[in-house]
Amino acid sequence: MTIAAARWLLYCLCVALLLGGLSPAAAVEPIRVVLELNPDIENGRRQFAICARCHLPEAWGTRDGSYPQLAGQHVNVLMKQLLDIRSGRRANPTMRPFVQQRTIGGYQNLADVVAYISTLPMTPAPDQGPWEPETAEFREGAEIYTARCASCHGIDGGGDNARGYPRLQGQHYRYMQRQAHLVRDGLRAVEPGMAAVLAALTAAQVDKALNYVSYLPIPAADLAPDVDWRNPDFK
Amino acid sequence: MNRSRRLSRRRFLQSGGVVLAGSLLGGAKAADPAGTPPAIQKILRRAEAGASSGTRVIVVGGGWSGLTMAKYLKRFNPAFDITLIDRQQYFVSFPLSNPWLADQLSLDFLSHSFFDAANNHGYRFLQADMLGLDRESRRVYTDQGYLEYDYLVLAPGVEYDYTRIGIDDPAQQQRLFQHYPGGFVAGSELLTIKRKVESFNGGTFLLNVPNGDYRCSAAPYERACMIAAIFKRRRLRAKILLLDMNPGITIKAEGFQRAFDELYGDYIEYLPSSEISGVDIDGRRLETTFDEYPFDDAVIYPPVRASSLIEAAGIDNPKDPQKAPLTDPFRYHLIGDERIYVTGDSRSQPFSKGGHTAHSEAQYVAEVIAAHALGREAVWRSPQTMCFSAVDINPLESMSIITYYRFDEHSGQFAFDRTHLVDHWDPQGGQASLAWAEGMFDDMFYG
Asked: How far apart are CA B402 and CA B386, in angstroms?
């Protein structure tokens, strides 16, 4: 997944807020602003230094699920999360101050940093679920995933950059599991379609589907050579 | 709020208090309350903090651990009826207090209201001093009366252990604390230290680094840098004597050494392996095993131990020099009692003591308790220690380190896992430290 030379679209949803009683209008339609930015990978690397202080220079996240793997994720997915956290739409109080205009800067810097992150190789040892292939739970998870998830996230878990669907391949099982349960419990807001799919499944079904995803192979070209690889940009 | 109150409470508990707990608190209804002084009667009544509904959770200690715990317990289980107890009136952050000493941020930035935290996150705040615990009746005794719990989280933090720098007499401990506070336990200490720095007119300003698992391992070195920066700005003829009880700088060593050499060569004199053996308070002299150091003013940071509340509750591990309790290293509950959890800097695990560690740990332990209430189990995850150190000012320039822990099956102990050290200082690091603190305060009080 290389986007280095690509121009890409940034969708920013600007919603005009109505304060009750102050405006005579019944409703104001959301306005979608489309920006097109050329990412500067070198500037992205400099911006990423601040992210790396917590996310670590490889952006691999943690197997226990406290941090997600960011490396190799689609730029549009990363950008949407940055903007959602910036606006508070995705509640993440501890990260929020890091992605404000006054700290990381404007859209260009955000574009640069997500472009840089997307070039990083992924960890060859992401966290995987408890049910190995050949188990009944694994097969059940495969069926659920294929029926309910694959149309957006891809049969191979590769996601869809153009449509902004996250790549699930290589994401830590316990991270996906925690996030899915937060959504099911109403503690994380996501797109209505995603929320509906999760609401229609039992917690056990969600776990099995994610278990299956965590065993989907990652293309060799996207992987770091081994778990001891360290990002040379931050030596 | 201050040391004398703490000492007097401890003496109370160690003498009459425990006996009182044995006779009256143990449910002896025959005891005649008429002969009991009103102050004691008050603590024997049920606290009038509001009716409880649902599963009652008491969190003792409104620091980084307790605040995070109360918020996330409510978030993970809205049926929990949570009361957070702290004896302070409001919260002051120790993280980022060194840049505040050097005028890089305001006290408003560091100060927050327990009421805001409780109102925004759906729990109750009670300003009270915990006095004791009766595990049989599941009661926590406070100076405002007792509260009953289904789950109790103790996060009372640390206290200074002056005996480890040769001060055994409680009256002398109190005097040393009041005149040369260490600046890591109570808000008044910080205000006094700032006043000391501002009014210093030259001579020797003595600081020290304690040994053992003290709170905020980088902070004493950072403090030396920040005070030196102020003295340098004022062009003061002054020397900061930094006596380290350890054989060398304990964290970010190359960075701090470079800062001492390159930025503050004229101001900081660093002396490792300085085992403090006593302080002559009136004569303003500090004694080490081999030397004596006269000073004009000082900030004396003794080694720390778990809060004496752990002892008062009767749950300390007598074999532990830090007097921490005996808890399950992964689930944090008292061995043999899954109703009581100990987190934050009074924990038994050897994690680095500090705000970020306590914050990340509390989110996990809140999951453990919420899961326990549902008959489930949470999967262990490591706390993280994120630690910024300010080195230079105007603009604020900082270094940082983040580390995780793993359990080593061979040694049966926790060890450092992945670590990312940025041991050069720059304005990006300074800005990151402010964003970090802002996010933490937002999470604990507002968001």
From this structure: 4
